[in-house]
Design brief:
The protein has 2 domains: 3-48, Arc Repressor Mutant, subunit A; 73-114, no CATH class. 60% of the residues lie in helices and 0% in strands. The protein contains 6 helices and no strands. Residues 6-50 form the Mos1 transposase HTH domain. This is Mos1 transposase HTH domain-containing protein.
Length: 118
């Protein structure tokens, strides 16, 4: 998401623009690249409630992992085990930079070679 658009939302709020006016201005400036109405409203509300930062809040959940060139998908599947399909799929999407359907096929092929069944 664009920090620039967040800054402009904050700017409009500080100028005293309403959400509707801000949304119209943002659509005029960014066109099809404008944030969705819902996301724009969420940021407008945050600034209205006193938020100053334009940065994302910290995310809760599984931390990002580092994938090195020597990391093999099969080794990752072996270490996570067959009960961790969701984690393996997430890793696969990042490792192969491919669409979800391709990952499912790659995981099935790699896991069957190693004797895992999802």
């Amino acid at each position: 998401m664009s920090i620039e658009q967040r800054a402009n939302i904050k700017f409009c709020f500080k100028l005293g623009k309403t959400f509707t006016e801000t949304h119209q201005l943002m659509k005029q400036v960014y066109g099809d690249d404008c944030l969705s109405r819902g996301i724009l409203h969420a940021w407008f509300t945050r600034f209205k409630e006193g938020r100053e930062s334009l940065e994302d809040d910290p995310h809760v959940g599984q931390p990002k992992s580092v994938i090195t060139p020597d990391t093999r998908p099969v080794e990752r599947i072996r270490s996570t085990g067959p009960d961790s399909q969701c984690g393996v799929l997430s890793w696969c999407y990042a490792a192969f930079a491919v669409k979800n359907s391709s990952c499912s096929a790659r995981i099935s092929r790699a896991s069957s070679e190693e004797g895992y069944v999802f």
